[in-house]
Design brief:
Layout lengths: L1 H23 L8 E3 L3 E4 L4 E9 L3 E5 L7 E3 L3 E2 L2 E9 L8 E9 L2 E9 L5 E3 L3 E4 L4 E9 L4 E4 L7 E3 L8 E9 L8 E9 L2 E9 L6 E3 L3 E4 L4 E9 L3 E3 L7 E2 L10 E6 L8 E9 L5 E8 L5 E3 L3 E4 L4 E9 L4 E4 L4 E6 L6 E9 L8 E9 L2 E9 L5 E8 L3 E2 L3 E12 L5 E3 L4 E2 L6 E14 L8 E6 L9 E4 L6
Parallel strand pairs: 2-9, 11-17, 19-25, 27-33
Antiparallel strand pairs: 1-3, 3-7, 4-6, 4-8, 5-7, 8-9, 10-12, 12-15, 13-16, 14-15, 16-17, 18-20, 20-23, 21-24, 22-23, 24-25, 26-28, 28-31, 29-32, 30-31, 32-33, 34-39, 34-40, 35-38, 36-37, 36-39, 40-41
Length: about 475
C-alpha cells in the first residue's frame, strides 16, 4: 500500500506540473517589414530601381494615386523572406519635379518609400533674333527657366550693349533688359548674347541698323559783337563733309586753330561800321548732298537787333514773343494802350533778350496799328504792329413804310453797331424810331458780332438786303436778298 501511494503522489505531482507548464506558453506573432531605403530619387529620364526588403509574412504593395500614370511596380504581392520589387518610372517631360509614395504592408506592419523624380531643366527664349533701329533703345528678352542661368555678351558688342536689369530664377517667365547704344556708323552691326544654364545654351542675335548719313552742327546762328572774335563751330557727323568760306574779307580761317576735323575755328574781324553784317558758311554732306548753313551775324557798335520790324497779326487777344539781340540796356516805349509788355528779362552784354507783348483783341471793324520803340541813347529800333479788324461785320438794309419801326432783335457775341434810319437820324442798336410819314424809306443796321436776328413786324417791309463782311470800299462780298415783295 505504501508503494502505491508513493507512485500516485508522484504521478499527481507530475500532472499538476505538466498542467501548469501548458497554461504559461503563448504563441508569438510579430509582423515586420525591413526595407533597404526609405527614399528613392530618379533623374529626369525613364529608369528602374530594385527595392530590396524582407517581411515576416505575406505582403502587398501599392502606389499613390497621383503617380499611377508614370510610376509602376513589377509585382504587388509576395511571401515572407527576402524580396525584390522593380520600381519603374517614365521620362519626366514636364518642367516640374514630381513625387510619389509606395506602401508595403505585412499584417499590421507598414513601410512607406518616398519617390522623387527631377524635372526637365528648361531654358526657353521667346525669340532668338532682335532687330533695332540705329537709335538708342532698350530691348527685353523673355526667358522661361526652372534653373539658375547666366548670360554673357559677345566681345564684339560689349561696347554698345549694356545690361539694364538682373536675372531671375525658378520655372517662370522673366525678362532680361539691355540698353543698346545708338549706332553712329553707316553700316549695320550685330552682336550676340549667350544665355546658359548648365549644359543648356540659348543664343540671341541683335541686328542694329546703320545710321543715315547725317551732319549736325552745334549752332546754326552765331551773333558776334562789333569788336570781333574767334568763333568755334563743332560738327557731329558720321560721313564725310566739306565747307566753303563765304566771299567776304572779314571772315577767315586760322589754320593753326584747327585741332580736330570736327571742330572748326573762324576769325571775325572788328566791325567798324554802324551797320550789322552777315555771311553764311555752308557745310555739305558728301553722301547725300544735304547742306547745313551757319549764319554769322556781326553787330554794329551799340546795336539793338530785332529779327523783324513789322508784324501783321489777327484780331484776337494774343501774346507776341520775339527776341532782341543787343549789347545795351534799352528802354521800351509802346504807342498804344492795347499793347502791354507781358514779360521782360534784363541782362547786360551781348545776349538774347526775350520780350513778350500782350495784345488785346480788336473790338473795332477797322484795322489798327501801333509801334514799339527800343531806345538806347541815339540807337532806336521800331517795330510796327498791324492788327486786322473784326471780320464778323454785317449790314442789314430794310425798305419799309412804317411810321414806328421796331429794331430787330439781335443775337451773337460782343454785339455792337449803329442804325441809320433813313430820315437823317442815327442811333445805337436796339432802339425803335418814329417817322413823320408812311412813305417808303430805307433803315440800315451796321453791326458786328451778330449771327441771328428776328424782325417782329413785317407788315410794311418790301425788301431786306444783307451784306456780310463788307470791305473798305463798301462793296458787299457776300449778300442775300431775303424777299422783295412782302404780302
Amino acid at each position: 500500500m505504501k508503494y502505491i501511494a508513493r507512485i500516485s503522489i508522484f504521478c499527481l505531482t507530475c500532472f499538476f506540473a505538466s498542467s501548469c507548464q501548458k497554461d504559461d506558453v503563448k504563441p508569438i506573432t510579430n509582423d515586420t517589414i525591413i526595407t533597404a531605403t526609405e527614399y528613392i530619387i530618379f533623374g529626369v529620364d525613364a529608369d528602374t530601381y530594385q527595392l530590396k526588403f524582407s517581411s515576416s509574412g505575406t505582403w502587398t504593395a501599392t502606389i499613390s494615386d497621383n503617380a499611377s500614370s508614370w510610376c509602376r511596380l513589377n509585382k504587388r504581392s509576395g511571401f515572407s523572406g527576402d524580396n525584390i520589387i522593380d520600381i519603374i518610372v517614365d521620362n519626366n517631360n514636364s518642367y516640374d519635379e514630381r513625387n510619389a509614395s509606395i506602401s508595403i504592408i505585412c499584417g499590421k506592419a507598414k513601410s512607406i518609400i518616398t519617390i522623387t523624380q527631377k524635372q526637365k531643366d528648361a531654358l526657353i527664349l521667346e525669340s532668338n533674333k532682335i532687330e533695332v533701329s540705329e537709335q538708342e533703345s532698350v530691348i527685353s528678352l523673355t526667358v522661361q527657366s526652372n534653373v539658375d542661368y547666366n548670360y554673357v555678351l559677345d566681345d564684339n558688342c560689349k561696347s554698345w550693349v549694356h545690361t539694364n536689369s538682373g536675372i531671375s530664377k525658378a520655372l517662370s517667365t522673366s525678362r532680361l533688359s539691355f540698353k543698346v547704344d545708338a549706332n553712329e556708323d553707316l553700316t549695320q552691326r550685330e552682336g550676340k548674347i549667350y544665355i546658359t544654364a548648365g549644359l543648356l545654351t540659348e543664343v540671341v542675335t541683335i541686328f542694329q541698323m546703320g545710321s543715315e548719313p547725317k551732319l549736325v552742327i552745334s549752332e546754326n546762328n552765331i551773333i558776334v559783337s562789333s569788336t570781333g572774335e574767334i568763333i568755334k563751330i563743332e560738327i557731329s557727323s558720321n560721313t564725310e563733309y566739306e565747307y566753303k568760306l563765304p566771299d567776304v574779307d572779314w571772315i577767315t580761317e586760322p589754320q593753326s586753330r584747327t585741332l580736330s576735323e570736327y571742330t572748326h575755328y573762324f576769325k571775325i574781324d572788328e566791325n567798324l561800321s554802324y551797320d550789322q553784317r552777315s555771311a553764311e558758311i555752308p557745310f555739305i554732306n558728301k553722301a547725300n548732298g544735304e547742306t547745313e548753313i551757319v549764319t554769322i551775324t556781326q553787330m554794329q557798335k551799340d546795336a539793338i537787333i530785332i529779327a523783324r520790324n513789322n508784324y501783321n497779326i489777327s484780331g484776337e487777344q494774343q501774346i507776341l514773343d520775339f527776341t532782341v539781340n543787343t549789347n545795351v540796356d534799352f528802354e521800351i516805349n509802346i504807342s498804344s494802350e492795347w499793347i502791354q509788355e507781358y514779360t521782360q528779362e534784363s541782362s547786360r552784354s551781348l545776349t538774347e533778350r526775350h520780350l513778350s507783348l500782350l495784345i488785346d483783341a480788336n473790338p473795332s471793324t477797322t484795322e489798327r496799328s501801333a509801334t514799339i520803340s527800343l531806345n538806347y541813347n541815339d540807337l532806336k529800333q521800331t517795330i510796327l504792329i498791324n492788327q486786322v479788324a473784326r471780320t464778323d461785320k454785317m449790314k442789314i438794309s430794310i425798305i419799309h413804310s412804317e411810321t414806328e419801326f421796331l429794331s430787330p432783335e439781335f443775337q451773337g457775341n460782343n454785339i455792337s453797331g449803329i442804325v441809320t434810319w433813313g430820315d437823317g437820324a442815327q442811333s445805337e442798336l436796339g432802339n425803335s424810331h418814329y417817322f413823320n410819314n408812311s412813305y417808303p424809306k430805307t433803315s440800315t443796321f451796321e453791326t458786328v458780332g451778330v449771327n441771328k436776328f428776328k424782325i417782329k413786324n413785317l407788315n410794311s417791309i418790301t425788301s431786306i438786303t444783307i451784306y456780310c463782311n463788307e470791305d473798305k470800299n463798301g462793296t458787299a462780298e457776300d449778300f442775300e436778298i431775303i424777299d422783295t415783295n412782302w404780302d
